[in-house]
């Protein structure tokens, strides 16, 4: 289920190009356009959900279950010292795209660009 005018639905459909990190039947992971640090990746469910409040357990389970796999792919490719994993919910929390997503932000030590 996709939603019209949702940029992340367009990304899962291949209508907007993206740099794929991982994909299966349920989720799609790709590099964030604005790389906070090298390898900054977003994981999204292929089923549209606006945010964590409006997500079914089924969609959330599939999404969160893939975090270890995507984190390991990032670890292997970028060899960061650590990774911050977070999800912004609501404008006040910094959400700017209203299709649920998890940020994986690789960390490389002080001064790597993420605060
Ligand atoms: P939020 O601010 O909602 O937590 O995160 C949305 C993220 O999506 C931002 O970090 C932004 O850079 C990224 N983003 C917005 N539009 C696009 C796009 O068209 N392609 C990609 N790869 N990332 C996008
Ligand atoms: Zn969507």
From TrEMBL:
Q: Name one GO biological process term.
A: nucleotide metabolic process
Q: Which domain of life is it from?
A: Bacteria
Motif Histidine triad motif covers 99-103
Which GO molecular function annotations are given, in alphabetical order? Answer: catalytic activity
Q: Where is the active site?
A: 101
Q: Where is the signal peptide?
A: none
Q: What sections of the protein cross the membrane?
A: none
- Give all residue intervals belonging to the HIT domain: 7-115
* UniProt-recorded name of the protein: Protein hit
Q: Which residues of the full protein are shown?
A: 1 to 115 of 141
